[in-house]
Design brief:
single chain; membrane; 345 residues; two-stranded antiparallel ribbon; mainly alpha; 2 domains; 12 helices
Length: 345
């Protein structure tokens, strides 16, 4: 009875490990059930540590820890599953010299070094069927190692691209209102078009990369200038102000503004799978004070924002908080000004 149980459990665990590995690495959207649950759990631990210690230093290395833990989970699932298979038959593993059946610990050891493709040779499959299965397990280990390497490379590359894109957006302005004031010539915001025209494609690409590689969500950057979500929220706020309060003839053309807005939407959709449901319906507040003080003519709408805009901004708030940011930081300086001219501060 126990041998049958070992066989069934082994097959189920192996199936889960292979499914999770293949879905996470090859599916165009999302992660497997194990990878998704593990990464979410570990991130909440980092988030809790950051809140407890009152420092963002707790987030350092979170992305690497999560991705390495994910790879380790695949290895452990396959190791456990194949070990259970070997335990299901007394003759599955024998000593290479004496032909004496291996005990449980030896079978765990045999499975481990077979998966690692070491092939020490002190144990072997007890029958022809088990020897063939051992060869297959060794091949599975090779595939696991290769897949892990090929999965990590594009994630690290996408992280570099994300930092570059974030700096491009942050350079437009430190805050949503500052982004607009930097483009205000006294008559309109048309000069903002030169910034928007090159942003739609890279923002959309980052959204698709986050769908293909969900672990990208957990690579945290404490520097505001390279924190993509923080700067995208600032840009999205600026676009919301333009769409709601600036006459159409004074804002950038729809050909430059709308594609960027849609690209940000696709990026936000890539985060919805990991973001908790927004709780506070009264936040965040849409600030127009600097624009009014600068004399920018605005078409003041009703105090209550349109439902779809309010929903979008609550989601943005939830995303920021889940990734360790607060809404107030959207409007804080993004660059270190100690190394630049005072006129540029």
């Amino acid at each position: 009875m126990s041998e049958t149980l070992y066989l069934v459990l082994g097959i189920l665990i192996i199936g889960l490990g292979i499914y999770d590995l293949l879905y996470t690495t090859f599916a165009p959207r999302g992660a497997g059930p194990v990878s998704n649950s593990l990464s979410s759990f570990l991130w909440r631990l980092f988030l809790g540590a950051s809140n407890l210690l009152k420092t963002r230093k707790a987030f350092r290395g979170a992305g690497i820890v999560i991705i390495m833990s994910t790879i380790l989970s695949w290895l452990l699932l396959l190791w456990a599953g194949y070990t259970l298979l070997y335990l299901s038959d007394a003759k599955a593993v024998v000593d290479s010299t004496t032909e004496v059946p291996a005990d449980s610990w030896d079978r765990i050891y045999f499975t481990g070094y077979t998966l690692s493709t070491l092939g020490n040779g002190d144990f072997k499959g007890g029958t022809q069927t088990w020897r063939i299965l051992t060869a297959f397990i060794s091949f599975t280990g090779l595939v696991l190692i290769t897949t892990a390497i090929t999965y990590m490379v594009p994630i690290l590359s996408a992280t570099t691209e994300r930092r570059s894109l974030s700096i491009d957006i942050a350079a437009i302005g430190d805050s949503p209102q500052q982004m607009l004031l930097n483009s205000w010539n006294g008559e309109d915001f048309k000069s903002l078009e030169q910034h928007l025209s090159g942003l739609a494609q890279p923002v959309a690409k980052q959204g698709q990369l986050h769908l293909a590689y969900p672990l990208l969500h957990y690579f945290y950057h404490a520097d505001r200038s390279v924190a993509l979500l923080l700067n995208l929220v600032a840009l999205d706020e600026a676009l919301t102000i333009l769409l709601l309060y600036v006459p159409k003839e004074k804002r950038p053309s729809d050909q430059s503004l709308v594609p960027v807005r849609h690209a940000i939407t696709t990026f936000l959709e890539s985060l919805t799978a990991i973001t908790p449901t927004p709780e506070d319906p009264d936040k965040p507040h849409l600030d127009l004070k600097q624009l009014k003080e600068a004399g920018v003519p605005l078409q003041l709408q009703e105090e209550k924002l349109p439902e779809e805009v309010a929903k979008r901004r609550k989601l943005l708030l939830a995303m920021l908080q889940y990734l360790g940011w607060e809404w107030e930081e959207v409007s804080k300086p993004k660059f270190n000004t100690d190394l630049d001219l005072r006129s540029l501060r």
